């Protein structure tokens, strides 16, 4: 009996030791993942060294999901999180030109995996890496002014910081501000004032960039938030955003203010919009040539050059400006149709619609507002071919799916109940 008791005691000690090692290993992996993810957003704000952190965060996220996910949760993951993987696999495979968009699909995969892991393991911790991005954007102006000078931070009088174009700055800055207004309660109380100051500065910076498409997308998303949450905080955030936009407009030069007013009064007559028409025409012609499977986004550069060379006389007679070389369509809608075809477009819609609907049911509004932002912004701009575009769209999608699975762990059958509730 004594030997049996000793064996049992030894077994219990071993089990406790293994449990402690597993607990410690899991939290070490969580810390590594959060560090990699925060580093990714910091590098994204600096526009330097993004890809090593993106791949590192994606691989760490995959290992973390493997460590913490139970077998009983696999069915829930398949129900909620599988559809985006189908679209990403389609992009990586690129049926029309095998493997041509594999690097692009890899960016989508890393962005989605990092969001999925964060939403599942730490559902309310998204404020940490995004605060790193917001602070880097805000601090880049004074630090960059002192280190590299004003000329590097501006593009023809428009603020761009370390990005290649002002629109990239505006999109990322307003993305951070959109997180604040949709996820205010997720931020710890002692950090809310830091987030408020950083997000407010981001809105002003976006106005100073004079990127009108992101600004219109942001105001549309905040308006949707006001409609959905007007009884609680929607009105407060709507007024705050309008005040911040007004401050930014006051800081603009007279010429830039005139451009902004003209874009609102006569949007169809803007020179920038007219110059995009031959680009859209070329993208549409590529879609017509391969409507089902698309052409891959990487093929647009060569297709555009061939199209304007073939139709040079007609295009120059019809349009005042024709770009000689371009790597992407100036429209997310046409970029999706040209690159992925009808089949890929359907997969993209199917990947987002269930997650958006379930997020609305769960009163988690970041993903729905991001989708509204991208729908408006995407009319005249496209970012799906870039690393920032991958993070802006697929990272929130992953977070939303991860949160839904995490809620299912705490409240079994919550997804089934949400799907059966009347609209």
Q: Please, could you describe this protein's structure?
A:
With 423 residues, this protein is mainly α. The chain has one domain. Helix content is 77%, strand content 1%. It has a two-stranded antiparallel sheet with strand order 1-2. Helix 1 packs parallel to helix 5, helix 7 runs parallel beside helix 9 and helix 12 packs across helix 15. It is globular, with a radius of gyration of 24 Å. It starts with a helix and ends with a helix. About 5% of the residues have low confidence.
Coarse shape: globular
How much of the sequence lies in strands comes to: under 5%
Share of residues in helices: over 70%
Count of domain modules: 1
Spans of at least 5 consecutive residues with low confidence: 4-8, 10-24
Rounded mean pLDDT is 84
Q: In sequence order, what are the helices and strands, one letter per element?
A: HHHHHHEEHHHHHHHHHHHH
Please describe the structure with a list of short key phrases separated by commas or semicolons.
two-stranded antiparallel ribbon; 2 strands; mainly alpha; single chain; 423 residues; O-antigen_ligase-rel_domated; membrane; Exopolysaccharide production protein, putative; 1% strand; transmembrane; WaaL-like
Please outline what is shown here.
This protein is mainly alpha-helical and 423 residues long. 77% of the residues lie in helices and 1% in strands.
List the helices and strands and how they pair.
Blueprint: H1 2-46, H2 50-68, H3 74-93, H4 102-121, H5 127-147, H6 150-153, E1 154-155, E2 158-159, H7 166-182, H8 189-209, H9 212-229, H10 234-251, H11 254-265, H12 271-289, H13 300-310, H14 312-318, H15 332-361, H16 366-377, H17 387-410, H18 414-420
Antiparallel strand pairs: 1-2
Helix pairs in contact: 1-2, 1-5, 2-4, 3-4, 3-15, 3-17, 4-17, 5-7, 5-8, 7-8, 7-9, 8-10, 9-10, 9-16, 12-13, 12-15, 15-16, 15-17, 16-17
């Amino acid at each position: 009996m004594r030997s049996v008791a000793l064996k049992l005691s030894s077994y219990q000690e071993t089990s406790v030791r293994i449990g402690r090692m597993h607990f410690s290993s899991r939290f070490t992996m969580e810390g590594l993942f959060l560090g990699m993810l925060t580093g990714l957003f910091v590098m994204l704000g600096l526009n330097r060294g993004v890809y090593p952190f993106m791949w590192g965060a994606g691989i760490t996220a995959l290992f973390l999901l493997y460590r913490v996910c139970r077998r009983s949760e696999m069915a829930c993951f398949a129900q909620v999180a599988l559809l985006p993987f189908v679209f990403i696999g389609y992009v990586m495979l690129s049926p029309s030109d095998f493997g041509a968009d594999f690097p692009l699909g890899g960016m989508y995969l890393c962005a989605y995996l990092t969001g999925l892991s964060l939403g599942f393991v730490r559902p309310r911790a998204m404020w940490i890496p995004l605060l790193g991005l917001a602070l880097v954007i805000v601090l880049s102006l004074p630090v960059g002014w002192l280190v590299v000078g004003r000329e590097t931070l501006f593009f023809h009088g428009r603020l761009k910081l370390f990005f290649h174009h002002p629109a990239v700055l505006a999109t990322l800055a307003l993305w951070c501000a959109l997180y604040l207004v949709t996820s205010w309660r997720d931020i710890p109380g002692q950090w809310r004032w830091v987030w408020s100051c950083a997000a407010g500065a981001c809105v002003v910076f976006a106005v100073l960039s004079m990127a009108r498409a992101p600004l219109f997308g942001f105001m549309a998303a905040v308006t949707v938030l006001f409609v959905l949450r007007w009884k609680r905080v929607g009105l407060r955030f709507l007024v705050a955003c309008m005040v911040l936009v007004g401050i930014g407009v006051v800081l603009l030069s007279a010429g830039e203010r005139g451009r902004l007013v003209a874009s609102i009064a006569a949007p169809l007559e803007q020179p920038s919009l007219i110059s995009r028409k031959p680009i859209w025409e070329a993208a549409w012609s590529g879609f017509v040539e391969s409507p089902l499977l698309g052409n891959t986004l990487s093929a647009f550069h060569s297709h555009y050059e061939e199209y304007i060379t073939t139709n040079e006389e007609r295009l120059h007679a019809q349009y005042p400006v024709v770009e000689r070389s371009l790597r992407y369509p100036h429209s997310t809608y046409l970029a999706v149709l040209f690159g992925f075809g009808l089949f890929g477009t359907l997969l993209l819609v199917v990947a987002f619609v269930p997650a958006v609907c379930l997020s609305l049911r769960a009163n988690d509004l970041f993903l729905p507002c991001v989708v509204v932002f991208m729908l408006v912004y995407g009319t005249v701009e496209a970012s799906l071919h870039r690393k920032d575009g991958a993070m802006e769209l697929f990272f929130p999608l992953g977070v939303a799916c991860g949160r839904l699975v995490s809620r299912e762990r705490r409240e079994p059958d919550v997804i089934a109940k949400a799907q059966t509730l009347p609209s």
